[in-house]
Every structure is written in C-alpha cells, then in structure tokens.
Design brief:
mainly alpha; homodimer; DNA-binding
DNA sequence: ACGGAATTGGAACTCCGGTTCCGGTTACGT
DNA sequence: ACGTAACCGGAACCGGAGTTCCAATTCCGT
C-alpha cells in the first residue's frame, strides 16, 4: 500500500529542491508534511475508496473532491493525476487479491483453495465496481499497475500448476485463460447475474474433465 | 435490418412537411432519395461496419467519415446521432445472433445446438469488438436496442428451458445468468484468452451436474 | 505574536469527441 | 441547357471531464 507507484511518470512539477530525500518527491515532498495536509489526504483516500467502489473507473475527480469536502486543487496536490489516484485504489485491491491467493497457496486441498479464492473474489466484485474495472483493465494490457497484476499472476500460476498436477483442473487451460476468466467473471457479475451461480459455473467449467469434443 | 429503429428519439429536425408518408421521415424523407445519397449511405454503412468491428463502440464519427471518404456532415445527414448509427450496427449483430439461435431451436439435439451456438458466437467475438461491446451493453440495461436484445433472449429462454428439461444444462441457471455469461464471455475473449477454450469452459460449466456444495 | 512556507479552493483553461451550420456543388425533372 | 431542391464537406461550435493556477488562508517554528 505504501509507495504504490515507484515512478508512474515524473509529474511535470518543477521540483528544483531536495535531491537528498531520494524518494517520494512526487505526491508532496514528504519531509514534514503539515498536519492538515495529511488529514486531507486521508479524507480523500477514504472518499475515493467509497466512490470507486460505487462508480468504478468512471468516478469523476470533482465527485471525489466533493465527497472528501475538499477542492479539486487539493486533490491534485496529493495525486498528480487521476490515473495515479486510480492506480492507488486499484493497487489496494490487487493487494487484497494477492493475500487471498497466498492464503490459498498455504492450503493443502488445492481445489478447495481455488474454489474459495474464486468465491471470495466474486462476492467482492458483486459490490465493488472498482474491483471489477480493475480486473477488466488488468487484462487489456497497458495499465499502470502491470507490476501488481503480474505479482498476482505469479501466485495464480503456482496455484494452477498444482491444481493441474493433482488433476483437479482441466489440463488445457492456461494462466492467460484464468486471467481472462476472472475478467469475464467481472463482466458477468456486472451484467447482473448472481455472483454465486456465476462463480460456480466458472469453477465447474474449470474442474470438469478434459475439453468437450464438440464442434460446429 | 430495414427500418431498424422505429423511433429512437424524434430527431430535432423541424419536419413541417409531409405527414402522408407516415414513416421514415427521419434519416431523410424517403421519397425519391437522390442516387448519390443512397450510394453514400452504402459507403458509410460499409465503412462503419468495418470500423465498428475493429474498434467497437469507441469508434469516432470522424474516423468513420474518413474511411467512407465522406464529410462528417454527410454522416449526420444519414444518421442523426452516433447512437443511431451504433444502434444500426448493433442491431445487425443481434439479427445474426437471433438467426443462429433460431437455427439452434430447429435442431433436435438441444445440447449440441447450444454448443454450436456458443462456439459460433465466441468465434465471432474474437474478431469483432463491436459484437463484444454490443453484448456488454445489452447486459447493462438501458441501451437503445432493448427490443432486439429481448427478441434474442426470448429464443434463448426456449433453448434453456428445453435443455434443462432434458437435463443437459444445470437446473439452477437462469436466463439472466446465461445473458451475463455471454457478456462475461465477451469480456474474457476481449481479455485475450483463446475463444475456443473459454467457450468450452463456459459450456462445461453449464453442462456439469448440479452446483458444487463448496463454500468458503 | 509574527513571518513565511505549505496548503487550500475553485474559477479558468485545455483537450477531445459529438454535433451543427451553411456556402458551394450536384443530380435530375422539364 | 436550365433551375432548383437535395446533397456535400468540413470549419466552427459546444459541453464535459481532467488539469492548472494563484490569491487567500492556515499551520508551525522562532
């Protein structure tokens, strides 16, 4: 959560000062941030969190500012760009997923762990448009937080490998497919289906025996 | 395909004239359209078709105009709004789906028909961003072409009913779920997975025995 | 208590894509 | 061939969302 963006893109702020701090000279110079500033940052983050959950990537900066009872200017003082703010929120969500994936990795019954992982995520997706958008964006390559996504994928890769080894997941699915399926699950849930059933269909599809021979 | 939009929204054109024509007074007065106008309309439609397939809902009017070798003004002469043009294209796609669904309805082996239907659609989605966007938009209620969507859903409902009766599809899935799943499939394919495998996973999930008892 | 650096708010600006407008052009009936 | 209604093109316009700017304000060390 801390220092989520190593260097997204050097904000055009004409920073002529400190070079000794060596980090975090965007987002505000770090050394002794005024108390009210820190307080506002919290308010912004809190408001953004809620708004993002509600509206997803479509949130408007002004909306967030209003909810945080702050001017847009203040918003931009703390986050140089909407992209940065969104990245922060998305990163937060990725962290959640990652720790759940790690929890799954620590479980002996691989398939049960996978089920649990998927159900948990589905449940959250059902009430968090930001999470859905995050997964969608993660698929279409190019987002800012590719790093986070890859960290998650790494976990999933291990999980998938194990599951395929013990035969609980179809041999032919790839990590890419899993990623796409999570993305699809997001869309399906956003599309108004019941998250429980959708997740269960997806899991059944993954669990099922080899591919169907069917052809048009 | 003809007269796709009965009355999307009375374009603000101050039509003070003919009331005897009784139809199609938007899009151009209908009675004796000049030859070059019709020709341009075709060019536009053709260009839009391609552009839509490539870029989906995100196409820009100017882009379409350029591809059609026509000015934006001309574009707007033929389609009062981007929404109208997109609706035309989307409707076209829905028509395709509907006739495939009807083909499925005419098949005796219900499950095979469903498989075929899904695979076909998946294949098209893989190369048609417009189709994907259309399915996505169709889920999030509110689009213009709700009528078309419902016509498709009607077919799917029958198909689902039959399949559940003969036991080839899980009893607990609803029409809404199917719709959401198509939407999810769009997203998953857009997310870069292999359409064949994704479709097969989805089908396996639908086909599989009752839900898994699993729980977090 | 004072001075100045940090911070704030929100009006103003930029950018971008859809939409409108109208002078010039073209097809078609006579 | 001529006149005119239909049609064309694309510059100009408009509104919405992100971003910038700076006078006014607030915190904090001395």
């Amino acid at each position: 959560m801390a220092t989520p963006s190593a260097d997204i893109a050097p904000p055009p702020t004409t920073r002529a000062s400190s070079q000794s701090t060596g980090e975090l000279d965007h987002v505000v110079a770090e050394r002794h941030q005024r108390a009210d500033a820190r307080r506002n940052r919290e308010k912004i983050l809190a408001a953004a969190e809620i708004a993002f959950r509600e509206l997803g990537t479509a949130v408007q900066m002004e909306d967030i500012a209003r909810r945080a009872e702050v001017g847009v200017g203040t918003l931009y003082r703390h986050f140089p760009t909407k992209e940065h703010l969104v990245a922060e929120l998305a990163t937060h969500r990725f962290s959640g997923c990652i720790s759940e994936a790690e929890m799954a990795l620590a479980t002996v019954d691989v398939w049960a762990a996978i089920e649990c992982f998927v159900y948990r995520n589905a449940e959250q997706m059902a009430t968090d448009a930001g999470l859905r958008d995050t997964f969608m964006a993660a698929c279409q390559s190019g987002g800012i937080w590719v790093g986070e996504r890859d960290r998650l994928n790494q976990r999933l890769a291990v999980l998938l490998e194990r599951a395929q080894t013990d035969g609980s997941v179809r041999q032919d699915v790839t990590l890419g497919d899993v990623q796409a399926l999570m993305c699809g699950l997001s869309a399906a849930i956003a599309g108004g289906g019941d998250w429980r059933r959708l997740a269960s269909v997806m899991l059944a599809g993954l669990h099922a025996p080899p591919p169907t021979p069917a052809a048009p």
